[in-house]
Structures
1.
Amino acid sequence: MSLKDIEVKLKTLGVKNDVASLEAFVSSLEDEKICSLVSCKICHSDAPQLLSYLYRGMPQNSATEVKRFKVTERVLRGLQSQELQNKQVNAIVSRLVLEVEKLTPAQLVQFCDYCIHCIQHEDGERTSWKDLLPKLLSVLVSNDSVNHAGIDMTGSEYKSEVIRTLLMVQWRPSIVTSLASMFIEVSLTSEQHLQVVNKLCSSFEQLAPPEIPPLVHQLLQLCKNKHGVALFLRLQAYFCTRLYNRLLSTASSSESTSLVANGDSIGLASETETQAAEATVLFHILQSARFGHASIRNFLKFMKNVANAPELVLDPFLLTVLLSVSNISIYQEQVFDVLKCTMQRAVQEEEKKVESAWLRDMMPSCCDVEFIFTKLMANSLRERSSVMEGLVNLAFILLGAKAAKGKESVAEKLRRFGMFVLVRLTRKHTETTGPVLQRLTDCIITGQDITQYTDCLHQMAMTIPLVFNEHRAIIIALLEMLTKLPGPVAENVVYAMLPIVRSFPSLRDVLIMVLRKALFARDVGLRKMAVSGFLQLLSNLDVKGMAVLSSSQSSQRSQGRPPAHSLLTQIDLEAGNSSTNNEAICLELLGVLRRCFMQQADVRLRLYEGLHSGVIRNPELRGFVQDMLINHFNQFYQSDPDTLPPLNLTKAVTLRDVSAELQEPLGHLIFSIQQVASTDSSDSSPTKLINILESLCSRMLKCSLENFGLNEATDLLDGLPESQQQQEIVRQILGVFEALMGYTISTWTKDTSAEKAKKLNSLFKGYSRVAEYAKSNHKTGKKTDGDTGGASRPKRKDDKRVAPTKGRTVTFRFPHTVLDYHVTHRMLCILHMNSVPWCTDEAANQIKGHRGFSIYVLEATLKLLKASLAENHTILKSTSRLNSYINIGSVVYSQCVTKLQEFVEFDAGTAALALDCFNGLFGLVCSHYKEKLGLFLGEVVGTVPASEGLTKQLFALVSKHKELLTGILSMEDEAADETAVKKIPLLLIQGITQFTLQIPCNDACRQVLKWVKLFVKDRVLSNVNLVKRMLSLLFTLELRSKGSSQLYEHIAMQLSDLMGTVNEDEEAEKHISYSAVRAGYENAVLFLLCDIVKQMLELIDWTLLRFRAEYTAMTHSVADRLQANRESLKRKECDVVHQISQCVQILNYVSNLALKPGPATDAVLKLLTHQYTSLTMLTKYFILRSTKTDPAFRAVRFEMVVKLTGKYLSPHVYNLISHIEASQKLENGTKKKKADPLAMKSKVLRETRFIPNLIYEIEQYEKFVIELSKKSKVNLMSYMKLSTYRDFRIYSKRLQAADDQDQSNAGNDTVVSGVEAQENGHSVSSVVKEPPKKKARKQ
């Protein structure tokens, strides 16, 4: 029978479903005939159907076993040898799978061997084995006995052998995707699964980018329940080497800990292909996350566990994955918590590295967060909408970071990261501008602390103004909401929108309309905002600038030039060609501002403070402003030259009901008038203003206290409305005198020097007379230091006046100065400069000899600096402000600080104020202009230019202050009674500290440390505050500059010499003595020592958290990187053990100090508690790391720490507790006077919290040491004694004494005098007897 006849007969019987005939026919056929038929028909489309008929004709019995095996074998060989369509192959294999269970174990083994052979030798185009092998293995597993290569084994053992064989063979790149698909269907143990995943992932390096996504898709299915972390880390290595490191060729200089090894060979695939591959991989990962696979949850859990090592999380690819997954609601909060905590940790770690040389040497340089974001955004995000959306969400979370107490700098840096991302993202991907702008608007409208949002809005407006204009609907909506926002918030919004508003007239018109409306709002804050908005518009508009721009562009168009597509073009299109457009707007703004004179005093005050800036930018407006001010000022000005005083003070301060109300801030009004009058302009002459100001000066000088309505009988501090009115009048008079002094200085020229000098002296005498009257009113007030020469000072705590009523304190508040930086700078110049271009030497000498005026000017300057430091707003950080700081700093430093000794001889109070001013100025520049600190020092100090580097500038500054400190201390010895002289060294040390902390930790910093150490060692200091400042600086620099130091141990030993020890039997060790540490200063030094040791322990705690993260990451590292990670971790563990040993040694001396109950004792107890907490953390970490075969703690000498604590520290601690209790009991027995409430509180806390907490931590430490001993089989308890502090303790010395007294009755005496009972933390002596024997219970 031919093959064709056999085929026809099989189909006929199969269609009829005649099973019996089919079985009879198949059994009658020869095996070779059937195999030949299969080989011929395998390529035909009806092959699956024909196979089905053949298998139906072979029932499951011994007669058909061989026939079925041969047919199946021939089918498999045909599949591997011939090219078939995937659909055909799948159909055939699916039919074969149904016959697998009918095969014998031996036949199954043969087919398994065949599949393994195909995997080893065949190419990737024919993969029929990937569906068959899982079924073969699943059937074999159920067999109890399988023979393979002459060896009998169970089916499970054979399956493990097959898996082991597959893992040993080399997998060609063409079949790894099929292998991954196959292993999805194979049941694997956890170890086998991890091995398979690692081997499949290792093939990434051999694949081209387009081949990665199919394999990842299969791997995500394979790892959907476990070991997904290994996949993500391999993908990280692949894409970082091929994509992100290429996007920015400038590699980060920081050494980061990598989880996986970088590939040695990088393919030549194009960047576009790699980006497309990554986008597809991200899609598969996102789909896996949407299906809720456990691999995503495990990955997020891993990220959370390694967040304490930021460089392990802040990788561009891992960030991309996390941001993509964050769009799924159930993962969003978790992802952003991980990222925010990681970035916060990165910022804090960088700060701690600056503070500690030990941490800096041990830890790698952390990643640059902005650099990572730049690499991420350098990749194309348009095809990754989920990543872009996640990035925007993350930026807003960072931008909204809350500032925890003491961590304001961390929150500020997180906000800066958020702002950086939003500005860069909107600039690179303009399609995100609309959503980002809308969210910023929502945050501003609904938020409370929104400064960071308005700052971000301002940065974006400066960067992409044209793109902003495309979303003007959002901007208009925000502007229209100004009247519903709090005043300060609305003011920030106006400033943020200025770059857009001043460029586009349509938006400017909207803002003007809103500000007009706000000017008459009920809320005074909104009115002040409206005034500020108008003033900012006025100071940002050029009357002639726009006209010139418009005419020039019109000329270009007339000459046939095509207009450029720029911001200026669009501005021109909106502005039109009117040359008077801006001038009309400015005049309109002035007309609106004229109405402010009908507003409250606070609103007008805002007008006076900002009006001058608009006149400076547009001098053409001075005439209008002059008329406006004169018309208003005439309401209070007495034009009659014979009228005294020249101002109607009772009209400026009126009585309303039971209180006085300020109607007009005359001082600020007159100062604003003099600013306008002294503005250089050729357009108009301020003759009217000058005449008024001159008349004011001459008539104010003629006024006596009686002219102002002030006399000795006036009680300013009374609560009556009239007295309140008099208080406010005095403040206004002082402000008027200040404004007139400002006018005199501002209009000072060389030709008028003699006249101006005489007038300035007279004005200051008038000011001093009124100020002295205010201070001397009610003699109960105390005169403060430096209140000499009648100069008024800023409000201080010691400016209080005590009223006759007992317990009631009334304060006369001096007004804030009306002067500005320009006037104070000119005052400082005339006081301290050798020669001034605008003043003659004779006139200057008349001013320089006035000590009171010098103090007044420095105090006014200091007051302005403190106000600027408190107002942290972007508008205050302008270049003009920096120039003012440079001008003032140059005069103060060159003429006051460098000549400090001369000033001390002239007046110590003036010298102290000059130093305080310079320190405040330096701190202000560091806070607001840190990036321009080199420019500031180059201009101010002058000895070292900015080009030579900031370090040299700061070191020169420190050197000068060291020289000054040495000289001043010698003068202090001669003038021991002058308080101001004693204050100067403190200010010098404060300056040295400020300068030194800005120096990077290099040779210059170590030179300063060397000098400070010698100073403390050799110099005897007579002021405890000076000792505290110097030692604080010494400890801080030692921590910053040296990884290991014995300084703290020597200080602790010196304290033992001064304070005595609890255990007097211990011999004192040799140590270096420091002259500054002497009797009387012990507690102050002890507090500083406790603080620095606390910092060291906090760094250890920080490091241990990082170790746990690195150990977690190490467990997922690949084999070729594992050993290097282990060695790195071991090295760092050695450093931590050494550092904590040093802390234990220091506290060993501190715990032996004979302390008296008090704050110092409480500080020591808390520090000891912290020490044992850190020891417990370290012990728990080694429990995690150590095993019976590998006790990791032994290699890093942790046993030495256990020995130090067990044999030395813990006994000292128990002795210290006993000493404290004995001292407390003795003190309670001798003290009969009424107890101090603070002392009682300290005693209660000590007994109920500090000591119990300490004992608990000791016991916890001992508990975990025992656990570590059990786990590692290393007897650590041989170094320790278990806790002896319980409710009952045996004092061996007392027991020995009792035995010596009564040896004869020792055996019979039941009284043991050496046992002392303790109840509720108190030591109470008691007699302990043997417990009575229990009576037998009657049955």
2.
Amino acid sequence: MNFNGDEDYSRNHDGMAQFLNLYITEDSLNTYIKEIKDLSVLTAVLEVKSRLISQEKHALISFPIETILNEVSSLRIDEVCLVLRLALVIQSNNLQYEILLDYINKNCIDINDSSSLECVLKLFQVAINLCDLKSRRKVFDKFAATNQFQKVICSLLTVESRNIINFITVHILPFYLKGNCFGSSYILNFIWENTQKSKDLSMLCSLSQFFLPWNTSSSCILCLVNLDEFWFLLQDCLTNSNSIIQKQALYLLNQALYAVKDEEDFTTETKIIAWNRKCKVKTQIAMQNLCILFDISREKQLHLIEPSYQLLPTTKILHSSWLMCIYKILLAHSHNAVSSFAICDIFKSNQFEDVNTFKMIIQYLLPVLNKVEFTDRKEIWNGFYQFNERLNSEQITLLLEQSIKVTWIPSICYQFYSNLLHCISKRNYQSDNLFSIIENITTGFEKLPHKFIRRGCIDLIVEFVERQLSCNKFDFNNYKIINQILKRCNRNNLHILLQNKISEYDLSSEKLLEKLCNSKNACTEEIEIVFEIIKLVPNLHEAMFKLFIERKFNLKIADRVCMILYEHKQYRKPLFPYIIKRLNNLCTDDDGIIIDLFKLFILTNDDETEMKSLSENCMKILFVDRSNSFEVHIAFEIVNTLLEQNKCSNIVLDKIDDILSLWKEKFLKGIKNSSANICVLFLYLYCNKEFFKSSFSAAEQQKLITSEKVLDIITLFEKIMDTESNIVVPIIFDNLKYLFNLCDDVEDVLNFVDICVNKLLEIRRTDQFKNAIENFIQSMFSNSKVSDNNEAVINKCTIIAWHILEFAKTSDDAAYSLAKHLRCLFDINPRVIIKFVPIIVELLLFGDILKKDQRAEYIICQKIDTDEGRIVNENNPNFRRLSVRGQAIVIINNTLNLLLEDEKTKIVDKMISLLIEKYNVHFNRRYFAHSKIHMQKLRILQAILTVHNYVKSQKQALIDLLIDSLCTESHQVSVKFFIQWILIGLLCYDNQSLSIIRSKVESTSKVHSSTIIAFVPILYHIALWRNDEEFWMNLFEIMLPWTMGAHFNLRLYAQEGIKKLYEVAYQTNLSLITKTFQDSVDCITKVLDRTERKIDVIDQYVFNDFNAVDNYCLVMIYYYIPKFTNVTLDEYENFLNIPEFVNDCKGEIISNIEPYLNSYTQISVKSSEDDLLTNLIQKKITPWMESFKSENSNKKIGSLVVVASLINKTPNLGGLSRTCEIFGVKQLVISSLNIIKDHEFQSVSMSSENWVDISEIKIDNLQSYLLEMKQKGYVVVGAEQTSDSVTLNTFQFPKECVLLLGNEKEGIPPNLLTLIDFCVEIPQFGVVRSLNVHVAAATFIWEYTKQHVA
């Protein structure tokens, strides 16, 4: 180690100076200096000359430096700088100093090459360092002024090279500015302006002493603390996402506060920082706490941040912008608990009365609130409601406007607006643009991807609009917007809203009718409202009729007038000619009102002549090729309506076959320009005719259609599905059942079914899929052939059911429809269930585990029905999902009640066999609460429990499986409960039950105490069903040793079981038991009385009130026990909305379990694991370095330099020394070599300091040292967490590397972060904040060593 290198060097040169002074004259030495060409020799001689001058033995000389400057190059620049410094020190005048400055000026301006520029800057550093003499200072100032060098420096500060900027900042500017050289103010202003633009605080941190007045003797030139812009910049950077910028800003904030701490009165223009004598202490404490919050809030671990929450209230006396900053940081925190705290605190706060501040906090708040994790946080939404209650009208408007800009996730959207709109309605809030805002909110609702929540949100809007209208006066303009909102919400209740307000409207019949006469467009909001008003005012109808007769209205207005008037009998006859005329005068731009008019005409008219006239006109349209598509559409609509109302004339009935033949040919040929609606209407008419569904005699409806006709229909259906819009698919599938019902031979229909399945695959991601698959399943499972036990159709249905289950993987609707229609099938034909057992098993286990966003949506779907006062039904996707299992359960339950015993046993054995297979898939697989395996096991066991009473051939296999599962697997509470229940049911009448359990437990290796505990309730309940004293004696002999076992829980449960059994024995007069075990039970009772810990609530229920037989009902199996055992809500909640489950409920059973449910607030869900027995022996190992050959034993692994100058704890440095020695680190850098002599250091270092190259670099010199190492080709790596840091396991260390370690508390300071090439962090998976700095350093060093080991 070079402990005394500088002293030796000094001593050697002093000796040489003495020698030369004795034997060489001054003139000879001066002459020799001027003749030397070799820089290394010149350096040594100039050192001697300098010594002699300092000893006043030689005088200064005049020595030209041109030859030295000629040697300038990137390779020799450090050597040149050293020689120049020595050469200029011994000069007798400033001429050579001026030559150096001229050289710098000439080369600095024209250089574009960064390496050459670095050379010039190093020369400039030499020039600045030699400004100590007044004469040189004058020369330098003159040079700087003449050449405007301050501008040159500023231009250099804008180059892209970070190394150049760092060099100027560290080596040049501190000396330049400290001497207050010419242009210093200009440079500082430039840096400040540039910092404001770039938000890069690096230079401010490095040169902070020139911007902030640290003390009275400070060299501060440009004081920033009085500038509002400075504090606002810090706020901006404190909330920056870049952690380096955050750290720099916090450093400057602390420095700035320190700089002004002694001021009695201090304020900026905007009072962003302000105090007077009275509040100085309180304000400074608040600012200090604010700095702590800024620092702590960057931590990731919750246990570090939570204690700092108590500091937040103290900061609320500060300018609101500081509070905004800390809220912004907390809201953006990665941990949701921190964001949640910030949200709740904002909702409680009264700090945001200023409009701009309120708008800003809302902009920060809403995107953070829009997280799925906050869906069911009651404290947030309760706080939000109270927050809304305190807002004024302007703030509510701002909140509504800002909410429109958020792309809400469905669950949060409903929570947000249900609270906000309800609160607004309650306060009778009014605003000029309220309904315009509501319209924009409605636009956002229309984009929500979840249909049910979207509908719930739209219901909120409608309810809100209705409430607002009931409270506000009639405003025509508002009603125009409201009408648009209601139409977008698919609501047609504007007339109801108007009815309550019509009295407030200044009615003027002339003005209203004038609006109609003058309007050219019938679809404007204004005209629609006028029509709604007219409907409510019958007095206007007569005047309107006169205008109608006089043809004062345009065609579309007239259609609507006709609709209103036709509701009244007195106008119908005069209006008939208009209707017939309109049929012959249809336009392509006619809207749906004309269709409604024709339907109204048919529904309200019984005149056969008029019906005949209308029918004949339709026939003409349908027979004429020149008819436009809208005319055809209207004609088909009218004909279909006539058929539905049985008002078709015989002429029309006679011509229908011709019409259908004509249009059938068109569709088979691939008709062009036909709309989807025409095809749909044609299919309705075609199917009505072919399948005798309406307007045909009962005799016709009983006819079977021929095979040729079936093929004809199928060909048409195929062609239409291939060529027309998918909108026709549900209609074709709906009519598939009629094909089955009326055909004689099903083979062709079954072939068509395969085509239908392929079509379902094709449209599975379209809007038509839901209706299509519903109609398809209904047609397959509800046709007469299935009811009649047609084997071919039933076999096809089983195949189709498997296809549908594939669809069900992405569509709950498919599974729901299948389960619903299977139930209908089995209600009619229960014996067919044997073919569908595998399908039923799949349905019993149906449903994926809900993901985070799905769970949130589940909660909101339930809330929507609750808020609207509805019982959850099939419209709710949650109900539909759970109903798949519910329907399957009801199918099994109902079907088994209808079958004979042998049939039941056959079906149940097949089911149990399949369920055992399913269970074995997950056997001995570790699982967690609410995981997929957990839910699958639970559902399998529930299904087994539902049918276990009928199992026969699979009984022993089931018993063996469940006992093995208890003995070898770790179970969630719910799974264990159902295993116990099933085993009780299977073994309670088995004479060998005790020996079966005993032998299984004894034969299982490593039986854990929890396994035995699980058997205690089973044995207890089996005993309750056995009035056999011999059985009881054997049971007591088995259980008594457990009461004294080593495991506390086993003792507790065994004691409880023995005590309960004894009580039953006493009540049932089992005298042998009571006499034999009385003393033992007395002792056990005393022990239990003194034991504070009791068995779990659920086990209390098992021992006290549970009955395996009496408790057997669907609602207990599928609702109460899952609820009791802390299963997720979506797994059981909606079973109570299925009537069969509620009807199967036994009141006394529920009354027994409910007290336990009330006291059972939470069950700790744990996965018990087998004890791990390890035989780990600590031993000393031979260092792996010894595996190398002896000649490499002293070889360093690489060129790793570890810089630990920032570390201040001696034991950490001692340990680091030891680590560096073991892994062959090239050099260890510390802040003081005196630490090595410390006893605390040596007790940890284990003499490693004797073998490690340790050098000293003070903290103040670290900037220069790191720059110097970078110039030597080293890459600087910082052990620091930043937003840009890379993980250690992915980082490739360069061979020549400087590892910079941070301070134990503060880490790496901001002024050094800009010098780091790479920030690297150790991946962390635990809760603790970070590693000890020595441990972290050892991890880095080992990773480097692994990568570069020879």
